[in-house]
Amino acid sequence: MEDEWALMKQGESSPLAHAALIELWYVYTGMSESEREHQLYGESVTHLNQLSESRLGRLFALHSSVPNVMWGVFLMGGVGMVWCSYLLPVAVYWKRKALTACMIALIAVSFVLILELNRPFSGLAHVEATPFQFVLDNMQQLER
Q1: What does pTM read for this prediction?
Q2: Any residues with CB less than 8 A from the CB of 36 and at least 6 apart, and which?
Q3: Residue ranges of the domains in the chain?
Q4: For 12-37, how does the pLDDT look when each residue is reduced to its tens digit (9 = 90+)?
């Protein structure tokens, strides 16, 4: 877990974690017929499927980003909004400046928010490894 989480913060996935998951699937698919008939086998395969799907979801989140078209719409919309603020009939000049400054601040904060949320494993609003570490610690205690 330490290996993959550290690599995900850098925008990469761990070949060690992938190999461990594949090895785990080999263990399950290589079990004898009598072992597969055990009542816990089906449940554990269900959980292994969930593990694989969750990891795949994290990898998709790692490699997904805001499309360039949406960045273009955001930037053009921001420029257009500021430009339109000059078309509003405002009699007092300082009010126009204050209105334009508020719009620019809102656009800038939105831009930073999109950048931060676009990196799910690093940045201010990142996914923590704490719940995963908790489960791993509990599993290791069960082995004892």
Answers
A1: 0.58
A2: none
A3: 2-65+119-143, 68-117
A4: 888 888 888 888 888 888 888 888 88
